[in-house]
Amino acid sequence: MSPSPANVETMTHSLLSKLSSRSLRSRMLMVFLLLLALIVVVTLVTVQKATYQHSTGQVRDHAKTSAIVVKDKIRNRSNQLASALATLAKDFNTKQLIAGGRQDQESLLSALKNHQRRIDADLSWVLDENHQLLTVTTNISTPMPEIDFPKKTGITWQDIAGRYYLLEAVPVRFVESSPKVNAWLIAAVDVQRLITQELITLTDMQVSIFSPAPEGKLIASTFASPVANVLQKGPLTWTEELQQIWLPAEGQSREYIYASADIGNSPDGPLKLLFATIADKAYLSYNSLIGQLILILVIAALLALTAAVIISNGITRPLTRLVNVTNKIRKGQYVEEVPKSTTLEISSLSTAIDEMQQGIKQRELEIQQMAYFDALTGLPNRNQFNNQLQQALTQHRPVVVLMMDVDRFKDINDTLGHGIGDQLLVKIASRLSDIEVDNLFVARLGGDEFGLIWFGDNSSTPKRLASQVVDVFKTPFDIEQLRLDLDLSIGVAIYPDHGDNPSTLIQCADIAMYSCKGHHRAFAIYRPELNKYSLQRLSLMSELRSALAEGQLKLYYQPKLMLADGQVSGAECLIRWIHPVHGFIPPDQFIPLAEQTGAIRDVTRWALKEAMHQQQKWSQAGLSLNMAVNISPLDLVDMQLPDIVADLFSQYNGNQGGLTLEVTESAVMSDPDMAIRALEKLKSMGVILSIDDFGTGYSSMAQLKKMPVHELKIDKAFVLDLATNSEDQIMVNTLLGLARHLGLKTVAEGVEDASSLAFLKRAGCHKAQGFYMSKPLPAADFDMWLKNYPESSS
Amino acid sequence: MILRYAVFVCCLLCLPVQGMEVRVSVQTDDARPVPGAVAYLTSEQPLPQVNEGAVAEMDQINKQFSPHILVVQKGTQISFPNSDSIQHHVYSFSPAKTFQLQLYKDNNPDPLPFDGTGKVELGCNVHDWMLGYIYVVDTPYFGQTDKRGLLALNVPAGNYKLHIRHPRIQDQPDKLDTEVTVSAAQNLVVRLEQPLLPGLEDFEEDTDEFIGYE
After folding, report:
1. Residue A20 above 60 pLDDT?
2. Which residues of B lie closer than 8 Å to A, measured between beta carbons?
3. Is the preceding peptide bond at B67 cis, omega within 30 degrees of 0?
4. Ordered structural domains, chain A, with CATH
């Protein structure tokens, strides 16, 4: 199969669409991937955010807990100091020493130092009831700070000589239940000793303590001193919320996060605890969680992608198979089995494609039937006839081509209806098919035209074959109680004698067939001379209109004789075409053409006008002649004709001398209602109406009765041999009787001898025309003839 | 009981000399009576000394000092008997009299002379709640207010200084001192400026109970 332009276009289109649009599979995968990416991103972001917040919260909580732990530890130390002091204060000996403190300070100091060592304090002193210093375990010269003892609660810090101490004081009452305080025992622990490495193990954070804001000086830290120095420089934000700071660690700068908390009270405000930890360590669980999450999502994405590929393959693979199948179907290669699928949708698509293929097959057969066979008769049609002929020419020699049509089949259709016509065609086909000749191919070419091909062998000759065909139609056809006798025209052409290709042969056969018409021959074998007419026919079609304008058409007049008195009452106007090249062209060659092309109306109009013009001329010359003009059935089917006639009447002083219109039976029968209306109108205008060729058609007597006609014109077929043929005489008598009974005038045409004329006169026919009186003559010759008439007839 | 001793001492000292009655009323800052407050009059003039061998008693009953507050003239000897069945360790670190009586029970220690004036705060080294006071005054004219915060003292005419003392009084002792010229019976009202210290009711109630019973 060579690629037709349409196919190339389809291929290009599909290629383009492949480039511009993605496949279903990649589109599905794309959507899947996008969705997956979205889920992964959303999950990651959400989890990341949540876990970060959680981790941050945990770190903050850790810092808070650490603050609580450290505070608790310091408070415990403070309580421990207090309870140790309280025990000391209740000791009788202590009371005794204090009571005697003024006198024996040395003993008191010694005992105090001893006790200070026991409770692991760094500094202690005793105040008397008036808060005057009794003794102190240090020799620093600074005065001991004023302490508002009654208000002291919780952790208390005191700055003594530039160092911060945790302070505890208990009152001493010489008599325990006395409301009076007799002395104060005070112990202090250096803050630096409270911030120990132990706190790191307790809190898992680095702990530092700073002097009250705004000074915020670093007092002690679990950090090594280089780090502590950096930390000291800050800048630091004193808040419970997490803060970042970069501190040196293991030779590099590391991000730390820290939070701070107040602890205790001093005259300057609370001290600041600061808890710091390496950020990475704080977010360790968070970082590993995110890492695991990403790993899980990547694995999930890979699994989902694999699943998507499998699913999309499950959809697209059967689709691709179906596409291959449909492509095959498109190329006309039908497949035995359309691939099935377990998927419901694909399966129904597959079923649909299968059904479509069946449908296409079925329709292809029907189309083939329609393309190569005639629906009515079941015979091969023109296409197959042509193919068959083509084929035959390559394989056989000689080949005989017969073209056949039924004469006047149109009349049968018109008068008996298409139903009868169709039945007739079927019967004709049947008879043709039944012809017992080997290698005979019969086809209906259209209408009433049949074609036969015979692959010539020695069993017959073309002539004999044609006769065989003609014989088939000798028997009349019986259709719905009608008996029809058919005349055939058969043209025969022989390969290779008359042509070497189908079209030439068919043309030759056609020409031969047309040559039969009008010659009353059943068949003719092609002869080159016949070709002359066929070529004329073609050019005449186009030349007729210009012939009208250029005056190539002439009216010839054949006189009509009143049989009663022998007077010339009028003339039948007959059209003649004198072609400048072809010469005389008979009307039966171009009138049917004019009817086919519709030019007949112009021809009729021209003929009417010409006739009336001539009538006027004769009228002026003192001759009153009735003019008879033939009109075509086509002139009757529209209502223009009465108007045209009326128009001409007004142009040529009315209907002087009279106008007769001759109409064939079949013209009236094809559309009786319309025709009768037109005729009624013409009749009312004084036009005489005559039925032409009466007796040859298939007139219905009932219709005839209704028709508004004046006269019947007996066909020349009955008149030509009237003198010798008794059957014709009976027929003419019958027809004349019929006309008489219907009150119609009669005209006989084709009178060629005196005895016929005498017979007609005897039989009571009104008028006669024919070669015996005169052939049709040009107007001038008619004048001449008329001058001589009385002499020649006498 | 305090009253009994006061009356006893008063009668003992005042009978030979006919004196004038000085009635003292001690009131709190919000005008309530202060019962048990120690009141005494001192003078520039020579006042009668305490008799040789005068002995007062500060007992220990039910793990309390009894009386809670004891007022004696300077030079009086005070014995510290132990009416309980357990040992006590009575001591004082007060400057007026510093002493201790090591743990004792049945064998009553000898009475101790109280020659210095002032407040002596008593405690027991083994019973922290035990608290007692001895006011040593250099005058025979002293006493303690009754439930209504009243005290009547009979003194000869002359110039005196009235002193009001009590462990719960927070006012500076000097500020409560009042110069009094006794020429006839007279009423003196001492109003505290500061509220009393809370607590110590235990001792007073005990005291009152005992008074009631005897």
Report:
1. no
2. 89, 91-94, 98, 121-123, 125, 128-131, 167-168, 197, 199-200
3. yes
4. 49-284 (3.30.450.20), 373-526 (3.30.70.270), 549-793 (3.20.20.450)
Q: Which fold has domain B1-46+142-214?
A: Immunoglobulin-like (2.60.40)
> Out of A405-409, A725-729, A746-750, B17-21, which region has the weakest mean confidence (pLDDT)?
B17-21
B135 pLDDT higher than 90: yes
Q: Which residue of A has its CA nearest to B89?
A: A92
- Give the whole-angstrom CA distance, residue A15 versus residue A27: 18
3-state secondary structure of A126: strand
Contact flag A178-B98 (C-beta cutoff 8 Å): no
Question: Residues A357-373: what's their mean pLDDT?
Answer: 86
ipTM value for the complex = 0.77
Give A742-770 as a DSSP string.
Answer: HT-EEEE----SHHHHHHHHHHT--EE-S
Domains B1-46+142-214 and B48-138 share a fold: yes
Q: How far apart are CA A409 and CA A418, in angstroms?
A: 10
pLDDT in tens, A590-609: 887 787 777 888 889 999 99
CB contact under 8 A, B123 and A178: yes
- B166: three-class secondary structure by DSSP: coil
CB B22 within 8 A of CB B151: no
pLDDT tens digits, residue range A164-203?
888 888 888 888 888 888 888 888 888 888 888 888 888 8
- Mutation choice for B interface testing from A177, A181, A182 by most B CBs within 10 A: A177
A71-100 per-residue burial string, b: 16 or more CB within 10 A, e: under 16: bebbeebbeebbebbeebbebeebbbbbbe
Q: Chain-centre distance of CA A621, in angstroms?
A: 78
Instruction: Concatenate the DSSP letters of all residues of A293-304 into one string.
Output: HHHHHHHHHHHH
- Please tell me which residue of chain B has the smallest CA distance to A91: B125
Q: For residue A79, what are its two tokens?
A: 């309580």
